[in-house]
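Input (structure):
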Protein backbone atom coordinates (compact mmCIF):
# COMPACT_ATOMS: atom_id res chain seq x y z
CA UNK A 1 0.00 0.00 0.00
CA UNK A 2 1.69 3.25 -1.09
CA UNK A 3 2.40 6.11 1.32
CA UNK A 4 -0.51 8.29 0.06
CA UNK A 5 -2.93 5.50 0.61
CA UNK A 6 -1.44 4.72 4.03
CA UNK A 7 -1.83 8.35 5.05
CA UNK A 8 -5.40 8.43 3.79
CA UNK A 9 -6.27 5.17 5.50
CA UNK A 10 -4.88 6.57 8.72
CA UNK A 11 -6.99 9.70 8.51
CA UNK A 12 -10.04 7.74 7.38
CA UNK A 13 -9.74 5.54 10.46
CA UNK A 14 -9.62 8.73 12.52
CA UNK A 15 -12.78 9.92 10.75
CA UNK A 16 -14.57 6.65 11.37
CA UNK A 17 -13.60 6.47 15.03
CA UNK A 18 -14.06 10.02 16.19
CA UNK A 19 -16.59 12.04 14.16
CA UNK A 20 -20.17 11.17 15.02
CA UNK A 21 -23.33 12.16 13.25
CA UNK A 22 -23.74 15.23 15.37
CA UNK A 23 -20.36 16.62 14.35
CA UNK A 24 -19.13 15.95 17.91
CA UNK A 25 -15.81 14.25 18.53
CA UNK A 26 -15.74 11.14 20.73
CA UNK A 27 -14.74 13.36 23.65
CA UNK A 28 -17.90 15.40 23.08
CA UNK A 29 -15.92 18.39 21.85
CA UNK A 30 -17.44 20.22 18.89
CA UNK A 31 -15.40 19.47 15.81
CA UNK A 32 -16.39 22.86 14.51
CA UNK A 33 -18.89 21.18 12.21
CA UNK A 34 -18.28 20.48 8.57
CA UNK A 35 -16.56 23.80 8.04
CA UNK A 36 -13.55 22.26 9.72
CA UNK A 37 -13.46 18.71 8.35
CA UNK A 38 -12.10 16.12 10.74
CA UNK A 39 -10.68 13.96 8.01
CA UNK A 40 -10.17 13.67 4.27
CA UNK A 41 -12.91 15.37 2.30
CA UNK A 42 -14.97 13.19 0.00
CA UNK A 43 -13.71 15.04 -3.08
CA UNK A 44 -10.06 14.50 -2.05
CA UNK A 45 -10.69 10.85 -1.21
CA UNK A 46 -12.14 10.28 -4.70
CA UNK A 47 -9.68 12.54 -6.53
CA UNK A 48 -8.66 10.91 -9.79
CA UNK A 49 -11.47 8.33 -9.47
CA UNK A 50 -14.60 10.33 -10.28
CA UNK A 51 -15.95 13.84 -9.69
CA UNK A 52 -18.04 14.44 -6.56
CA UNK A 53 -20.81 17.00 -6.94
CA UNK A 54 -23.70 18.73 -5.26
CA UNK A 55 -26.80 20.41 -6.68
CA UNK A 56 -27.84 23.91 -5.72
CA UNK A 57 -28.58 27.32 -7.20
CA UNK A 58 -25.64 28.86 -5.37
CA UNK A 59 -24.17 31.24 -4.36
CA UNK A 60 -27.25 33.45 -3.80
CA UNK A 61 -28.98 32.63 -0.52
CA UNK A 62 -26.22 30.30 0.67
CA UNK A 63 -24.39 31.09 3.92
CA UNK A 64 -20.61 31.49 4.13
CA UNK A 65 -20.46 28.15 5.96
CA UNK A 66 -22.48 26.44 3.24
CA UNK A 67 -20.25 27.86 0.52
CA UNK A 68 -17.22 26.62 2.49
CA UNK A 69 -18.89 23.21 2.61
CA UNK A 70 -19.15 23.22 -1.19
CA UNK A 71 -15.55 24.34 -1.65
CA UNK A 72 -14.18 21.70 0.75
CA UNK A 73 -16.24 18.71 -0.36
CA UNK A 74 -17.24 19.01 -4.01
CA UNK A 75 -15.52 19.66 -7.34
CA UNK A 76 -18.60 19.96 -9.57
CA UNK A 77 -21.93 21.75 -9.12
CA UNK A 78 -25.27 21.17 -10.86
CA UNK A 79 -27.77 24.07 -10.83
CA UNK A 80 -30.88 22.66 -9.13
CA UNK A 81 -33.42 24.91 -10.88
CA UNK A 82 -32.01 28.12 -12.32
CA UNK A 83 -31.00 26.75 -15.73
CA UNK A 84 -34.24 24.83 -16.35
CA UNK A 85 -36.36 26.12 -19.26
CA UNK A 86 -39.05 27.76 -17.08
CA UNK A 87 -36.76 29.69 -14.75
CA UNK A 88 -34.15 30.73 -17.37
CA UNK A 89 -36.38 31.24 -20.44
CA UNK A 90 -39.89 32.03 -19.18
CA UNK A 91 -41.08 33.48 -22.48
CA UNK A 92 -39.69 33.59 -26.01
CA UNK A 93 -38.05 37.00 -25.63
CA UNK A 94 -37.29 36.84 -21.89
CA UNK A 95 -34.15 35.31 -20.50
CA UNK A 96 -33.22 35.24 -16.78
CA UNK A 97 -29.45 34.77 -16.69
CA UNK A 98 -28.70 36.43 -13.36
CA UNK A 99 -28.59 33.26 -11.24
CA UNK A 100 -26.99 31.04 -13.89
CA UNK A 101 -24.31 33.68 -14.52
CA UNK A 102 -23.65 34.04 -10.77
CA UNK A 103 -23.38 30.24 -10.37
CA UNK A 104 -20.99 29.84 -13.31
CA UNK A 105 -18.85 32.76 -12.06
CA UNK A 106 -18.73 31.50 -8.44
CA UNK A 107 -17.74 28.04 -9.59
CA UNK A 108 -15.04 29.40 -11.93
CA UNK A 109 -13.68 31.64 -9.13
CA UNK A 110 -13.48 28.54 -6.90
CA UNK A 111 -12.10 26.12 -9.53
CA UNK A 112 -15.28 24.04 -9.40
CA UNK A 113 -16.76 22.53 -12.59
CA UNK A 114 -20.39 22.97 -13.63
CA UNK A 115 -22.77 20.40 -15.12
CA UNK A 116 -25.78 22.07 -16.74
CA UNK A 117 -29.32 20.91 -15.93
CA UNK A 118 -31.55 20.60 -17.96
CA UNK A 119 -32.21 21.66 -21.56
CA UNK A 120 -35.33 19.63 -22.44
CA UNK A 121 -37.85 18.36 -19.88
CA UNK A 122 -41.62 17.85 -19.62
CA UNK A 123 -41.66 19.84 -16.34
CA UNK A 124 -40.72 23.43 -15.50
CA UNK A 125 -41.12 24.32 -19.20
CA UNK A 126 -43.49 27.13 -20.11
CA UNK A 127 -46.13 26.58 -22.76
CA UNK A 128 -44.88 29.29 -25.13
CA UNK A 129 -42.51 26.76 -26.71
CA UNK A 130 -45.50 24.90 -28.14
CA UNK A 131 -48.23 27.53 -28.53
CA UNK A 132 -49.44 28.44 -32.08
CA UNK A 133 -46.49 26.66 -33.60
CA UNK A 134 -46.20 23.99 -36.27
CA UNK A 135 -43.36 21.48 -36.24
CA UNK A 136 -40.91 23.87 -37.91
CA UNK A 137 -41.68 26.72 -35.51
CA UNK A 138 -41.38 24.51 -32.41
CA UNK A 139 -38.14 23.05 -33.77
CA UNK A 140 -36.75 26.56 -34.26
CA UNK A 141 -37.76 27.50 -30.69
CA UNK A 142 -36.00 24.38 -29.40
CA UNK A 143 -32.88 25.20 -31.40
CA UNK A 144 -32.87 28.84 -30.26
CA UNK A 145 -33.32 27.82 -26.60
CA UNK A 146 -30.50 25.29 -26.63
CA UNK A 147 -28.20 27.34 -28.88
CA UNK A 148 -28.54 30.45 -26.73
CA UNK A 149 -28.15 28.73 -23.34
CA UNK A 150 -25.39 26.26 -24.23
CA UNK A 151 -23.67 28.88 -26.40
CA UNK A 152 -23.61 31.40 -23.55
CA UNK A 153 -21.62 29.02 -21.34
CA UNK A 154 -19.52 27.40 -24.05
CA UNK A 155 -16.23 26.30 -22.50
CA UNK A 156 -17.50 27.14 -18.99
CA UNK A 157 -19.97 24.26 -18.48
CA UNK A 158 -18.37 20.81 -18.89
CA UNK A 159 -21.54 18.92 -19.71
CA UNK A 160 -25.33 19.05 -19.91
CA UNK A 161 -28.35 16.97 -19.07
CA UNK A 162 -29.70 17.51 -22.58
CA UNK A 163 -32.93 15.50 -22.27
CA UNK A 164 -34.41 14.71 -18.86
CA UNK A 165 -36.93 11.94 -18.03
CA UNK A 166 -38.24 11.14 -21.51
CA UNK A 167 -39.29 7.55 -20.64
CA UNK A 168 -42.61 6.63 -19.06
CA UNK A 169 -42.67 5.32 -15.49
CA UNK A 170 -43.37 1.67 -14.78
CA UNK A 171 -43.91 -0.40 -17.90
CA UNK A 172 -44.22 -4.12 -18.56
CA UNK A 173 -42.78 -6.92 -20.71
CA UNK A 174 -44.33 -5.34 -23.83
CA UNK A 175 -43.20 -1.73 -23.24
CA UNK A 176 -39.75 -3.05 -22.28
CA UNK A 177 -39.19 -3.85 -25.98
CA UNK A 178 -39.88 -0.21 -26.94
CA UNK A 179 -38.57 3.24 -26.01
CA UNK A 180 -41.89 3.82 -24.19
CA UNK A 181 -41.48 7.60 -24.42
CA UNK A 182 -43.53 9.91 -22.23
CA UNK A 183 -46.27 11.83 -24.09
CA UNK A 184 -44.61 15.14 -23.18
CA UNK A 185 -45.37 18.43 -24.99
CA UNK A 186 -42.07 17.92 -26.89
CA UNK A 187 -43.19 14.43 -27.96
CA UNK A 188 -46.60 15.67 -29.02
CA UNK A 189 -45.14 18.58 -30.99
CA UNK A 190 -42.13 16.94 -32.65
CA UNK A 191 -42.43 13.17 -32.22
CA UNK A 192 -39.54 10.97 -30.96
CA UNK A 193 -36.99 12.89 -33.03
CA UNK A 194 -37.07 15.75 -30.52
CA UNK A 195 -34.49 13.81 -28.52
CA UNK A 196 -31.90 13.53 -31.32
CA UNK A 197 -32.58 17.14 -32.33
CA UNK A 198 -31.85 18.36 -28.79
CA UNK A 199 -28.52 16.53 -28.68
CA UNK A 200 -27.51 17.78 -32.13
CA UNK A 201 -28.40 21.40 -31.25
CA UNK A 202 -26.42 21.15 -28.01
CA UNK A 203 -23.40 19.66 -29.80
CA UNK A 204 -23.52 22.41 -32.42
CA UNK A 205 -23.53 25.03 -29.65
CA UNK A 206 -20.61 23.50 -27.72
CA UNK A 207 -18.80 20.60 -29.43
CA UNK A 208 -16.67 19.96 -26.33
CA UNK A 209 -19.54 19.60 -23.85
CA UNK A 210 -20.35 16.09 -22.52
CA UNK A 211 -23.98 15.44 -23.42
CA UNK A 212 -26.14 13.23 -21.20
CA UNK A 213 -29.51 11.56 -21.22
CA UNK A 214 -30.79 11.81 -17.59
CA UNK A 215 -33.59 9.87 -15.90
CA UNK A 216 -34.76 8.16 -12.70
CA UNK A 217 -35.50 4.46 -12.08
CA UNK A 218 -33.81 3.56 -15.39
CA UNK A 219 -31.51 1.21 -13.54
CA UNK A 220 -34.18 -1.39 -13.03
CA UNK A 221 -37.06 -3.28 -14.70
CA UNK A 222 -38.94 -2.42 -17.93
CA UNK A 223 -37.82 1.22 -17.71
CA UNK A 224 -34.20 0.06 -17.85
CA UNK A 225 -34.93 -2.07 -20.92
CA UNK A 226 -36.67 0.87 -22.62
CA UNK A 227 -33.69 3.11 -21.84
CA UNK A 228 -31.43 0.57 -23.56
CA UNK A 229 -33.73 0.55 -26.64
CA UNK A 230 -33.63 4.36 -26.77
CA UNK A 231 -29.87 4.66 -26.20
CA UNK A 232 -29.04 1.94 -28.72
CA UNK A 233 -31.05 3.84 -31.35
CA UNK A 234 -29.35 7.16 -30.54
CA UNK A 235 -25.87 5.62 -30.66
CA UNK A 236 -26.67 3.73 -33.89
CA UNK A 237 -27.93 6.96 -35.50
CA UNK A 238 -24.70 8.77 -34.63
CA UNK A 239 -26.44 11.18 -32.23
CA UNK A 240 -23.76 13.10 -30.21
CA UNK A 241 -24.55 11.52 -26.80
CA UNK A 242 -21.72 10.79 -24.37
CA UNK A 243 -23.31 9.60 -21.18
CA UNK A 244 -26.30 8.41 -19.18
CA UNK A 245 -27.37 9.98 -15.92
CA UNK A 246 -28.84 7.54 -13.40
CA UNK A 247 -30.49 10.02 -11.05
CA UNK A 248 -30.28 7.80 -7.96
CA UNK A 249 -33.26 8.91 -5.89
CA UNK A 250 -33.31 5.90 -3.58
CA UNK A 251 -34.39 5.07 -0.04
CA UNK A 252 -32.44 3.12 2.54
CA UNK A 253 -34.99 0.31 2.56
CA UNK A 254 -35.11 -0.08 -1.22
CA UNK A 255 -31.76 0.31 -2.98
CA UNK A 256 -31.64 -2.03 -6.04
CA UNK A 257 -27.94 -2.80 -5.64
CA UNK A 258 -27.72 -5.66 -8.16
CA UNK A 259 -29.77 -3.78 -10.74
CA UNK A 260 -27.57 -0.70 -10.41
CA UNK A 261 -24.46 -2.84 -10.80
CA UNK A 262 -25.85 -4.46 -13.99
CA UNK A 263 -27.26 -1.23 -15.45
CA UNK A 264 -23.92 0.58 -15.29
CA UNK A 265 -22.35 -2.33 -17.18
CA UNK A 266 -25.19 -2.27 -19.75
CA UNK A 267 -24.73 1.43 -20.48
CA UNK A 268 -20.96 1.03 -20.67
CA UNK A 269 -21.48 -1.72 -23.27
CA UNK A 270 -23.01 0.97 -25.52
CA UNK A 271 -19.80 3.00 -25.23
CA UNK A 272 -21.45 5.53 -22.92
CA UNK A 273 -20.12 7.02 -19.70
CA UNK A 274 -22.35 6.90 -16.62
CA UNK A 275 -22.93 9.47 -13.91
CA UNK A 276 -25.02 9.23 -10.78
CA UNK A 277 -26.59 12.63 -11.20
CA UNK A 278 -29.07 13.27 -8.35
CA UNK A 279 -28.07 10.93 -5.54
CA UNK A 280 -30.06 10.92 -2.33
CA UNK A 281 -31.01 8.01 -0.05
CA UNK A 282 -33.95 8.83 2.20
CA UNK A 283 -34.20 7.35 5.64
CA UNK A 284 -37.96 7.10 5.98
CA UNK A 285 -41.25 8.47 4.75
CA UNK A 286 -42.47 9.04 1.23
CA UNK A 287 -40.48 11.01 -1.26
CA UNK A 288 -41.76 14.44 -2.21
CA UNK A 289 -41.42 16.19 -5.52
CA UNK A 290 -42.46 14.56 -8.77
CA UNK A 291 -41.07 11.14 -7.99
CA UNK A 292 -43.48 10.61 -5.13
CA UNK A 293 -46.36 12.56 -6.63
CA UNK A 294 -46.77 14.67 -3.51
CA UNK A 295 -44.96 17.09 -1.31
CA UNK A 296 -42.66 15.81 1.43
CA UNK A 297 -44.76 15.28 4.52
CA UNK A 298 -42.86 18.04 6.33
CA UNK A 299 -40.46 17.42 9.14
CA UNK A 300 -40.42 13.89 10.53
CA UNK A 301 -38.76 12.90 13.75
CA UNK A 302 -34.97 13.18 13.74
CA UNK A 303 -33.29 9.99 12.50
CA UNK A 304 -32.18 7.48 15.12
CA UNK A 305 -28.60 6.25 15.34
CA UNK A 306 -29.90 3.00 13.82
CA UNK A 307 -31.45 4.93 10.90
CA UNK A 308 -28.17 6.75 10.31
CA UNK A 309 -26.23 3.49 10.43
CA UNK A 310 -28.56 1.86 7.91
CA UNK A 311 -28.20 4.90 5.64
CA UNK A 312 -24.41 4.78 6.00
CA UNK A 313 -24.44 1.10 5.03
CA UNK A 314 -26.53 1.89 1.96
CA UNK A 315 -24.23 4.70 0.84
CA UNK A 316 -21.18 2.53 1.53
CA UNK A 317 -22.56 -0.31 -0.63
CA UNK A 318 -23.49 2.14 -3.38
CA UNK A 319 -20.01 3.62 -3.52
CA UNK A 320 -18.50 0.12 -3.56
CA UNK A 321 -20.53 -0.50 -6.74
CA UNK A 322 -19.49 2.88 -8.19
CA UNK A 323 -15.84 2.06 -7.45
CA UNK A 324 -16.22 -1.30 -9.17
CA UNK A 325 -17.26 0.67 -12.27
CA UNK A 326 -14.84 3.56 -11.76
CA UNK A 327 -13.66 3.39 -15.38
CA UNK A 328 -17.20 4.03 -16.62
CA UNK A 329 -18.37 6.49 -13.97
CA UNK A 330 -17.57 10.16 -14.59
CA UNK A 331 -19.33 11.85 -11.68
CA UNK A 332 -21.43 11.24 -8.57
CA UNK A 333 -23.58 14.23 -7.66
CA UNK A 334 -25.69 14.53 -4.51
CA UNK A 335 -29.03 16.22 -5.11
CA UNK A 336 -28.59 19.01 -2.64
CA UNK A 337 -25.96 20.25 -0.23
CA UNK A 338 -27.41 19.13 3.10
CA UNK A 339 -30.58 17.69 4.63
CA UNK A 340 -31.80 21.27 5.03
CA UNK A 341 -31.29 21.92 1.33
CA UNK A 342 -32.94 18.79 -0.04
CA UNK A 343 -36.15 18.56 -2.09
CA UNK A 344 -36.77 15.53 0.16
CA UNK A 345 -36.21 17.60 3.30
CA UNK A 346 -37.51 15.83 6.37
CA UNK A 347 -36.37 12.49 5.02
CA UNK A 348 -32.70 13.13 5.84
CA UNK A 349 -31.40 11.87 2.46
CA UNK A 350 -27.95 13.45 2.17
CA UNK A 351 -24.51 13.14 3.79
CA UNK A 352 -24.56 16.43 5.72
CA UNK A 353 -27.25 16.95 8.34
CA UNK A 354 -29.40 20.08 8.59
CA UNK A 355 -26.62 21.76 10.60
CA UNK A 356 -23.99 21.04 7.91
CA UNK A 357 -22.31 18.32 10.00
CA UNK A 358 -21.03 15.12 8.46
CA UNK A 359 -23.31 12.11 8.99
CA UNK A 360 -22.10 8.51 9.32
CA UNK A 361 -22.86 8.13 5.61
CA UNK A 362 -20.01 10.55 4.85
CA UNK A 363 -17.43 8.40 6.64
CA UNK A 364 -18.88 5.23 5.07
CA UNK A 365 -18.40 6.70 1.59
CA UNK A 366 -14.78 7.64 2.28
CA UNK A 367 -14.25 4.25 3.95
CA UNK A 368 -15.61 2.46 0.86
CA UNK A 369 -12.37 3.20 -0.96
CA UNK A 370 -10.27 1.22 1.46
CA UNK A 371 -12.66 -1.60 2.30
CA UNK A 372 -14.78 -2.06 -0.85
CA UNK A 373 -17.65 -4.49 -0.64
CA UNK A 374 -17.65 -5.58 -4.32
CA UNK A 375 -20.52 -8.03 -3.84
CA UNK A 376 -23.56 -5.75 -3.37
CA UNK A 377 -25.92 -6.90 -0.66
CA UNK A 378 -29.22 -8.48 -1.67
CA UNK A 379 -32.01 -5.90 -1.72
CA UNK A 380 -33.56 -5.63 1.76
O1 LIG B 1 -38.63 29.91 -7.18
C1 LIG B 1 -40.01 29.77 -6.80
C2 LIG B 1 -40.36 30.82 -5.74
O2 LIG B 1 -40.26 32.11 -6.32
C3 LIG B 1 -41.78 30.57 -5.23
O3 LIG B 1 -42.07 31.47 -4.19
C4 LIG B 1 -41.87 29.12 -4.71
C5 LIG B 1 -43.23 28.78 -4.16
O4 LIG B 1 -44.12 28.58 -5.25
O5 LIG B 1 -41.57 28.20 -5.79
C6 LIG B 1 -40.23 28.39 -6.23
O6 LIG B 1 -39.98 27.48 -7.28
C7 LIG B 1 -39.85 26.13 -6.83
C8 LIG B 1 -38.45 25.63 -7.22
O7 LIG B 1 -38.31 24.23 -6.88
C9 LIG B 1 -37.34 26.41 -6.50
O8 LIG B 1 -37.47 26.19 -5.11
C10 LIG B 1 -40.89 25.29 -7.56
O9 LIG B 1 -42.17 25.65 -7.08
C11 LIG B 1 -40.65 23.81 -7.25
O10 LIG B 1 -41.53 23.02 -8.06
C12 LIG B 1 -39.22 23.45 -7.65
O11 LIG B 1 -39.02 22.08 -7.29
C13 LIG B 1 -37.89 21.51 -7.94
C14 LIG B 1 -38.38 20.30 -8.76
O12 LIG B 1 -37.25 19.67 -9.38
C15 LIG B 1 -39.33 20.76 -9.83
O13 LIG B 1 -39.91 19.61 -10.41
C16 LIG B 1 -36.90 21.02 -6.89
O14 LIG B 1 -36.34 22.13 -6.20
C17 LIG B 1 -35.78 20.22 -7.54
O15 LIG B 1 -34.95 19.62 -6.55
C18 LIG B 1 -36.36 19.10 -8.40
O16 LIG B 1 -35.30 18.46 -9.05
C19 LIG B 1 -35.69 17.43 -9.98
C20 LIG B 1 -34.68 17.44 -11.10
O17 LIG B 1 -34.64 18.71 -11.71
C21 LIG B 1 -35.00 16.34 -12.10
N1 LIG B 1 -35.05 15.03 -11.42
C22 LIG B 1 -36.00 14.98 -10.31
C23 LIG B 1 -35.65 16.05 -9.28
C24 LIG B 1 -36.60 15.97 -8.10
O18 LIG B 1 -37.90 16.26 -8.48
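Output (sequence):
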Amino acid sequence: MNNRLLAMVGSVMVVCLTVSASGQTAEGKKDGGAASPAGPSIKDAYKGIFLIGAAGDLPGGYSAEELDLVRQNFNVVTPENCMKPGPVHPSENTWRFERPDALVKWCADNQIAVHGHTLVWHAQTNNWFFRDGDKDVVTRRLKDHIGTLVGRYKGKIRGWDVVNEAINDGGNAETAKTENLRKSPWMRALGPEYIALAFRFAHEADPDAKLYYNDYNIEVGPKHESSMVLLRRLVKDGVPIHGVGIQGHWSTARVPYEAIDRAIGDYASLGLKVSITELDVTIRGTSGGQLGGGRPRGEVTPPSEQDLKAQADAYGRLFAIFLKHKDQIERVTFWGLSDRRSWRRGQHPLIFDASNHRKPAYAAIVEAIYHPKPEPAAPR
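Notes: The beta strands are 51-55, 76-78, 113-120, 159-164, 210-215, 243-246, 249-251, 273-282, 329-334. The longest helix spans residues 305-324.
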